[in-house]
Amino acid sequence: GAVVSQHPSWVICKSGTSVKIECRSLDFQATTMFWYRQFPKQSLMLMATSNEGSKATYEQGVEKDKFLINHASLTLSTLTVTSAHPEDSSFYICSARDRRAFYNEQFFGPGTRLTVL
Amino acid sequence: AQTVTQSQPEMSVQEAETVTLSCTYDTSESDYYLFWYKQPPSRQMILVIRQEAYKQQNATENRFSVNFQKAAKSFSLKISDSQLGDAAMYFCAYAGTASKLTFGTGTRLQVTL
User: Fold this and answer.
1) Which residues lie below 8 Å from residue B57, measured CB to CB, with a gap of 6+?
2) How many CB atoms lie within 10 A of CB B25?
3) Contacting residues for A43 by C-beta, under 8 A, at least 6 apart
4) Residues in A touching B103 (Cβ below 8 Å)
């Protein structure tokens, strides 16, 4: 149980295009999903918190117009990187919090590697 | 704001030996959770162990145990009988009332024969 998937696992795009990354909780309902960014050999940095049916809450310094987050259902959140540039190249990881979770535990997706040429 | 500090960028342990990874944190909250996550080369984050701050007893999961010192705000991870598969990045993480995870900078663990 508690499986989170991400699609695609890797994507290469041209500068100026938009890329959408999907995060799905496969066997549980997630009222809250989180999006992280991880640069090589660095830690995970929280970008935003996504709550089902409401607007995402972005961390300080994260451009909400560049990183569009939609949490349309209890099992799906999407991150769209708009007008991507090479500096947006990174590893993006989502996590989901099971609404039944007692320990505030988050279950992580396998990540998406984005390369912007 | 909460902070999590891992002062050991890299650690090495011989197979079958024991290693301890350090983690300290800073918070003004009284109710929170602490976690150790493992990130192997696949980059999939795997929960190793968790600790509720209100519990005095240290958490244990098979070969993994923690030393939780609430007053000192310390949360170290001990890996016993180290195995080659334990080689990975290990992240200490804090979750408070906001449910957001704050990660440390990570410790890369190498396991040698």
Assistant:
1) none
2) 20
3) B91, B103, B104, B105, B106
4) 43-45
Provide the token pair at B25: 């944190």
Which uninterrupted H or E stretch holds B45?
Answer: none
Name the residue type at position A46: L
pLDDT per residue over B29-51, tens digit each?
988 999 999 999 999 999 999 99
Asked if the Cβ–Cβ distance from A91 to B43 is below 8 Å, we say yes
**Smallest Cβ distance to A103: which of B45, B50, B102?**
B50
pLDDT of residue A1: 65
Q: What's residue B28's pLDDT? A: 92
Main-chain phi, psi angles of A39, to 5 degrees: -85, 160
Q: How confident is the model at residue A100 (pLDDT cuts 50, 70, 90)?
A: confident
Shortest CA distance from B106: residue in chain A: A43
Chain B environment of A94 (Cβ under 8 Å): none
